[in-house]
Amino acid sequence: MVGTIGTAPEKGLVYTAHPGSQGSNLDCNVIKPGSRVHLPVNVTGALFALGDVHASMGDGEVSGTGVEIEAEVTTTILLASGQSRNRPWIEADGQIHTLGFGPTLQEAVNMACEGMIEILAERLEISRTEAFMLLSVDGDCHIGQCCGGLDATAYVSFPDSNI
């Protein structure tokens, strides 16, 4: 799986170890062969970056590392004008996954849930309250990373066939 994937931030400098709205160190187990990662494009050329490939990594990456490996990764990059959200999201394994990050795990979970609520409300044409209730019924929340020294990451999964 790919631990770090992202584009340049709108302004300033960001280290790839720090997750943010541009992506970076997401440590999300669903970023693997066949996944479609949607990233915001904040600057001309996007300045795409990818790295931190793992042969295996448990959800949470609790010690701060998985089985780190050297890898060659082949990607296809497409520009989907007007379809991007302000944070990365993923299509993989018949599910949609929204990502969150923050200084605490709760903040990361809240952001990931908010992203899924937005998608559900938009695609199903339902209220945010209805989307929130639906997420609780058929969605799953996962920990990306919660090791010390880095912002926590979380991702919420929802079956694509249900939206």
Write the layout of secondary structure elements.
Blueprint: E1 2-6, E2 23-25, E3 36-38, E4 49-56, E5 67-68, E6 89-92, E7 95-102, H1 105-124, H2 128-138, E8 140-145, E9 152-159
Helix pairs in contact: 1-2
Describe what you observe in this structure.
This protein is of the alpha+beta class. The protein has one domain (2-78, 85-162): Acetamidase/Formamidase-like domains (Endonuclease I-creI). Helix content is 19%, strand content 29%. The chain has 2 helices and 9 strands. The strands form 2 sheets. The protein has a 5-stranded antiparallel sheet. A hairpin with a 2-residue loop joins strand 6 (89-92) and strand 7. The protein is globular.
**Low-confidence spans: pLDDT under 50, at least 5 residues?**
none
Any idea what the CATH architecture is?
Roll
Portion of residues in beta strands equals 25-35%
Helical proportion? 10-25%
Describe the largest sheet: 5 strands, antiparallel
| Strand element count | 9
Quickly count the helices: 2
Q: In CATH terms, what is the fold-level topology?
A: Endonuclease I-creI
Distance separating the two termini: 26 Å
Keywords:
five-stranded antiparallel sheet; globular; Endonuclease I-creI; four-stranded antiparallel sheet; 2 helices; 9 strands
Short description:
Helices cover 19% and strands 29% of the residues. It is built from two helices and nine strands.
